[in-house]
Amino acid sequence: MARTKEHINLVFVGHVDHGKSTSVGRLMYDSGNVDEQAMRKLKDKAKELGKAGFEFAFVMDNLKEEQERGVTIDLAHKKFETDKYYFTIIDAPGHRDFIKNMITGASQADAAVLVVSGNPGDGVQAQTKEHVFLSKTLGVNQLIVLVNKMDMAKYAQARFEEVKKEVSALIKTVGYKPEEVQFVPAAAFLGENIVKKQTQMPWYTGPTLLEAINNLKVPDKPTKLPLRLPIQDVYQISGIGTVPVGKVETGTMKVGDKVIIVPARDGKGVIGEVKSIEMHHESMTEALPGDNIGFVIRGVEKKMIARGDVLGRVDNAPTVATEFTAQVVVLNHPTVITAGYTPVFHLHTAQVACQIVEIEKKLNPATGEVLQLKPDFIKNGDAAICKIKPLQPLCIEKQKEIPQMARFAIRDSGATVAVGICIELVKKQM
């Protein structure tokens, strides 16, 4: 497959009901990435389910349950092309209980569109904050803010400026520079300023959403780093063999490569050879960072490996840590976090229970300066350096070596409690 256009993974995030799915659906439809006939079917379907007006959201929400609830549950991946780029659009759920999918989504993205409702009374909500924070910590460095539902605000410039000011203050706290962020007012349901130029906001002279995503920069592909591919799923296909699926985070993978997958079931790793690679049903000879691929591997049985394992080259195996030190930021814990706390850590495709063995120091989240050594506890809004012990073998890398493999989120009883990055680790002796 010839790579004619650069590829960007784009995630849509934001509070529930602020119009993420509708914005994506409108973008795909108005740009000709979804045809008339498919759209008509969705429209009829929406009426039949008593959800007239949800047809654009249905473009992404292809699960039956979602169509009935009108809520995005799982991540939806869609191919989308502009004259300039080839995008994989990830529509991330805004509902609280679906945030772990949002984490998976954001950790795969190069850029995010934060959808904020301009409807008076909406603006920045709890989830808006959480998503902004997670996006930044998970390494999404480019941001577009779509101020949606401007029709509800009678297309008033004052309301747009108000939301812009509120969002700018928020994104600044996590390290985005508001002056580098594109703010786009729109009414997705009516198709105002998504693909077609707006007709109701003469005061606005900036880009449409489509133009804004075309203004994004292609991230540098970390091809020079060692190969790391976290396994998302593994299939056994008769007549073909073992087919793992995942996204190349760093490095390149070529047909014929001798690879190792760790920690694997035995904790020592399994070795195999890459027989073939395909992406979106087209075969390719090499895969680059950002590519979501399936590949046939010789010498490895399906039962030996699982989601959460990481593939690398034999001469530079992924790191399995018995203990690591991380910088952690507490977002949302009902009480306080103390040493001994053992929540589930989500990183790349793995979910592993880890124990916080020691809180070494508390930091100022904005500047990183040390506020207190060995505090007894940390609470919401605090940043800290902690020593952590995984309860089972875990693949993780240091931020300064392979940042794409150093980030994680900590979840507990259905909520994201904290996020962090690994700064030091103790390597497991294989």
Pairing-aware structural class of the strands and helices? alpha+beta
For the biggest sheet, the summary is: 6 strands, mixed
The gross shape turns out to be globular
Total strands: the figure is 23
Poorly predicted residue ranges:
59-76, 93-106
Overall pLDDT: 82
Rg, alpha carbons: 22 Å
Would you identify the CATH architecture of the largest domain? Answer: 3-Layer(aba) Sandwich
| Count of the separate structural domains | 3
Q: Report the CATH topology name of the largest domain.
A: Rossmann fold
Range of strand content: 35-45%
Q: In which order are the strands of the major sheet placed?
A: 2-3-1-4-5-6
Query: What is the assigned CATH homologous superfamily of the largest domain?
Result: P-loop containing nucleotide triphosphate hydrolases
Name the helicity range. Answer: 10-25%
User: What is the CATH class name of the largest domain?
Assistant: Alpha Beta
Tally of contiguous helical segments = 8
Report the span from N to C terminus.
38 Å
Describe it.
It is a single chain. Helices cover 19% and strands 35% of the residues. The chain is an alpha+beta fold. The protein folds into 3 domains: 6-214, P-loop containing nucleotide triphosphate hydrolases (Rossmann fold, 3-Layer(aba) Sandwich); 229-313, Beta Barrel (Elongation Factor Tu (Ef-tu), domain 3); 320-427, Translation factors (Elongation Factor Tu (Ef-tu), domain 3), CATH 2.40.30. It has a 6-stranded mixed sheet, with helices on both faces. A 6-stranded antiparallel beta barrel has the order 7-8-14-11-10-15. Strands 16-20-18-17-22-23 form a 6-stranded antiparallel barrel. A hairpin with a 2-residue loop joins β11 (270-279) and β12 (282-284). The longest helix is centred in the middle third of the chain and has 17 residues, at 157-173.
